[in-house]
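SUBJECT: A protein chain and its fold
Encoding: whole-number codes for local backbone shapes
RECORD BEGINS BELOW THIS LINE
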Amino acid sequence: MSGRKETYVSMTTWERDRLYQEAARANDLASANRALADLARANDEALEESRHRYDLVADRIRALDAAVTATGTAARKETAALRAQLQEEIRSANRRLQEATAHSRAQMQAMGQSFDRAIRETRQDVADAMAANNRRIEAAIDASSAAIRNEMTDMEDELHAEMSAVEGRLDGVQATVQGLSGSNDTLLDMAREYAEMTGLLTADAAQYRCEVLLPGGMKEVENAVAQARSQMDLCAKAPTNAPVARDYARQAFERALDFHQRLLQAEQAWQMDLRLTRQSVDTARAQLEASRVLTLPECEVDVDRWSCGDLERLSGLLTGLENTLRKPDGLSAADLAGIRDAAVQTSRETDEAAGFALVAVTSSQDRADTAADLARQLWETFSLRVESHGYQGDDQRGAHRIHLKNPATGFEMVITQTPQADGEGRVGNRLESDILCYGLYEHNAAEADALARRVLETLSGDGLEQSQVTTVPGYERRESDRTQLTERETWDREAPVLPKPVRRKEGETAVR
């Protein structure tokens, strides 16, 4: 005889996958459409913000052009050609930046339209798996991100080539000026021409978020400007230092021009990153709101309740991301990438929360079905009738207990099923049987024990797998002494043991 036995019954991985897929298809249609409508509105608002930011950059470029024109004529006629060339270099760079800005603005518009199409397609197919719809929108975001990265790489290559061309043109102009007059005064005036145009570039660059977009870049330009200024000041005492001053001033100009162009390119890339980041967060939010209720033919599943608050936890994470994006100007490209990654992870965990909720509901029903099946078999085997049954704390998410007894023979038994979640998205049930009294079977307890074991070993079935029935150490030859298990009022008041999603460690494969 043995008074306490244990076994573990869990759904198969095939059944888990089936339930996750069913959860993905079971999002409430009205909620999904509302969430997608909100996503479309957010897309429109973000697109308008992007247009405004691009227009502001275009206005600043035009203002720099006006400032270059307003510099007037050179102090010395010998350096007029250099001034004209420097003005043209800045205007030429501005034209390229204006074209790039207009292109980026158009690309942003196309991105918004592509995203909107993905939303519309999702709304048309909303009865399909929500996870598949989420991946469709994610794919649109990923495609845009890849296009941005490729375009920024191409722009960087073009900038390197253009700066080499700038150096060649300046070499030619300098040679022409020095051919007219190679005096120290002319060389110093050339340094001043460089310095004046450098000042226009650095003043314009200061309007942007230099440390966010290109950390340390503005400091390098400022150091170059300071070195050039120091060499120019030295010319007051040592006029022969003019060639050195001119070279330092030119280096400062080239560095400022290069930095200014890279800065505005970084601004454009940042704006696109911001747009993609908003899309990622908004998509995750829409998915979460659409996943709050799973509508099945037989019932509706409150995902947050059955995932033990997992959906609200994810909602809180999204709220934090949304709050961060309300004032985005201090966010770097790396910050935005981190927010996008967090949004995608939240999206995937929302899928898992919905799947887990349906698994938990199914596991709860399995506990009730198992109890009913055992009660039937034990009635047929030992004429045991049900004294009481119910969920711990009257909560269907928790453990289930059934108390069985044969008043005529005195045979008494309690079966407790406690849900346990694993790291694979499944919820199994640990089954404990306590034979509290063999009654009239005391003389033939071994036979009764064998019958009870056979009953407990019949729990596997379609979609279920069962571990071996084992005896709890110490109870091999005696009845269970856990008589408190029959106290139904205590059981009803106890805080239930609830299964919660078990998150995989980083790098582990998510359930799909």
